[in-house]
Amino acid sequence: MNLITARLVPIASLASLLLLSACLEPAAEETTVRRGDMAFATDSVEEALAEYRLAERQGNGEPEVLARVAHAYVTLGRVDEAADYYGRVVELDEDFRTQAVSDLMGLARTAAERRERFQMASAVEEALALEPAIGLDDMALPLARHYFENGEYGQALPLYQRSLKTGADSIPSVVFEIGRVYREIEDCENGLLFFERFREMVRASQRGEVDWYIGQCSYERAAEARAAVDVSEEQLEEALMLVDRTLEVGEPRSLMGEAWYERGEILAALGRCEEAMESFAQVRIVEGPTTPLFQRAQSRYDEIYFGQGLQDLRPDRPCG
Question: Does domain 29-133 have CATH number 1.25.40.10?
């Protein structure tokens, strides 16, 4: 090899290398995406996210790139950012909707396992915003409990109802919670069904709190029934059963005088005067002699006692 040839070889090799690089070198943003993929593959998610965001800033707004950004945010547990990017991705390409929902629900399940219920709820809500018809299955109960604990009973109830289909009605605590949800939305009729069921599922020593709810709800329903316009005898009989249930469980203790008084009024309305008098007499035992309720009960007792001889003259008021 002569000197000229020796000088030409390196020059020719460099030219070939540059030519090859020019042919193979991807766009800058594509290189950035590749670096992001490599970082993600080694669990360097923060680094991967930075590369994907850089590709976006360099002008690559393709759905595939934005989906990478969204997935990285999901991996980092950042719900809001993930949902924002997936929303943009789905607007550009509907084919990514399934991936977006799956990713967000996966994040929700991970959060549920960690008992991070706010994050769980946010992820589910974002997934539902993308696909309202998704089945929640195992997520229904933890999500219901999240809303329950935060006083969002209207949102909790349908989720509890969904959970019943998966066998949650065999869990005493869930049955009790559903009863409380109905109580909070002022539906004592359905609430009582679950309270009574819970009471049957637990030992006597565990019934203290549920007895309070049973007694309170039963009393409220009885009072409402008796106060209804044009109340029927059937409604009065039902009201009597309810107030008797309050007295049977003995809770709430602060309502015992009121319950005996309500029972007296129901019996009086049914024309069962002697029993009504007995109930008003019980009020005087439960209440102190200086309380207004004691005085009302005494007055009603006297009205019936002294008015019984006038029943024929006042058929609309058989007990005074």
Answer: yes
